[in-house]
Specification:
There is one protein chain. Helix content is 71%, strand content 0%. It has four helices and no strands.
Length: 79
Amino acid sequence: MIRIDRKTAEDSVRGRLRSERLARFAVLDIAYMRALESGEDATGIAAEKQALRDVTDKDFSSLSLGELAGLTLAVALEF
């Protein structure tokens, strides 16, 4: 019988989410710098970057192992 360790599964998903968010951070970093350079408000960009940082701190214990395995960054941000 195969046993799946819940903590290891959640840690694995958090690692995958960290990898998935890297590209979005790069895009947001450019947008943030452009906003600062042009004197525009960068509050929304900063909030989006913070949401990306916070996504790996969310409690995913209510998800089944199947739901956890299929969790995408977009879904995790709305979670």
